[in-house]
Amino acid sequence: MNIIGKKVVLKAIEKEDLPQLQIWANDPEIQYMLGGWHFPTNAQDQEKWFGSISCNSIHQRFAIHTEELGLIGTANLVEIDWKNKNAFHGMMLGSKEMRGKGYGLDTVMAVMKYAFEELGLQRIDTTIIEYNVASLNLYAKCGWKKEGVQRKWYFRKNQFWDRIIVGVTNEDYAELIQKNN
Q1: What are the DSSP calls for the chain, one per residue?
Q2: pTM (predicted TM-score)
Q3: Which one is predicted more confidently, 100 or 38?
Q4: Engineered SS bond to 73: which of 64, 148, 153, 171, CB 3.0-4.6 Å?
Q5: CATH number of the domain that 16 lies in?
Q6: How many domains does the chain divide into?
């Protein structure tokens, strides 16, 4: 099942997406904005990662597509906890040209709609490096609330940076939808 937004469609990641995903995985400018470890990725690593993706997993990963541009990034719902009804969300838009055009906002809204209206989750969390102001602003526009700071969490460019924790509940989402029709 594809997840339909106003500007984007979230689809299963396909084998033909792997060359572009490898380029983005090896782009330092993109990776500095994301959490986690980042090592050079070769085609074999991409294939192995692709082989681990399953629709039966608690880790769901999506390719972000637009009609005009095709693949523009990835999004996910991972660490889905069915008992407590929560998950962790992440998103990556590829080239700079994709940013600031509403694709990220539409992706987050589509993920929230799917998580809350289809999966019945109660909340979604994410974390953002303190210098990624664009992401902090984007998630705030989508109704996410700052819930905490883990000081000196990320190490980037020979310096430690805070990790900002943001989250959104089903009620926050419903209020945002009602307020904005």
Answers
A1: --EE-SS-EEEE--GGGHHHHHHHHT-HHHHTTS-S------HHHHHHHHHT--TTSS-EEEEEEETTTEEEEEEEEEEEETTTTEEEEEEEE-SGGGTTSSHHHHHHHHHHHIIIIIS--SEEEEEEETT-HHHHHHHHHTT-EEEEEEEEEEEETTEEEEEEEEEEEHHHHHHHHHHH-
A2: 0.93
A3: 100
A4: 64
A5: 3.40.630.30
A6: 1
